[in-house]
Amino acid sequence: MTTTQRTPITPVTPGTAANSAVPTARERAGRTRAPARARFTPRTRKAILLLHVISSMTWLGLDVGLLALSITGSLSDDPVTLRAAYLSMNMLGDTVLIPASLLALVTGVLLGVGTKWGLVRYTWVLTKLVLTVVTAALTVVALRASLNEAAAGVLAARPSAGDAADGLLFAPVVSLTCYTFMTVLSIYKPWGRIRRGRRAAGA
Fold first, then answer.
1. 72-81: long-range contacts at Cβ-Cβ below 8 A with a sequence spacing of 24 or more?
2. Which stretches of sequence are listed as region Disordered (predicted)?
3. Which of 31, 75, 106, 184 has the most crowded CB, counting CB atoms within 10 A?
């Protein structure tokens, strides 16, 4: 009688070649994730970050200087001091303030787009973006007009900054408050992800 020899069945364990074609749970989860966003190289990111820090600190320093000049002009009755204060403010606005504010805005957007933080993924980043856009727009539109008006007033026969003096005192205070708050956000990074970002990450 011929006996049939049975081939022993080898149990298949996870990680062996026999079940390599079956995707694991981790592999299946990885396939459902969105493709990684393009990021800056470390050297490019550091260069943009350096420009952002320099332009932001320049903007902050200019606001301190404008506030000091505005207080000097509003408290002084000396025509020479009044003229020097408001003409200096106008010069700073023409040559440094607007370029610094726009550069801070552009580099901030680039850092959001090209790094893991994004622009609308985290509440603190979105808050900083909104505040930067608002303060930059007010600097270009409202503050610039007030600086021109004050400069024209002190160049008149009887120097006076006129109604623009109140705006020039108010604008640096608002800008400094916003920038101090944005600095706190950059350091502490509160509030976490925006809800839409959390759903997208868990998809």
1. 73/150, 73/161, 73/165, 73/168, 74/161, 74/165, 74/169, 79/154, 79/159
2. 1-36
3. 106
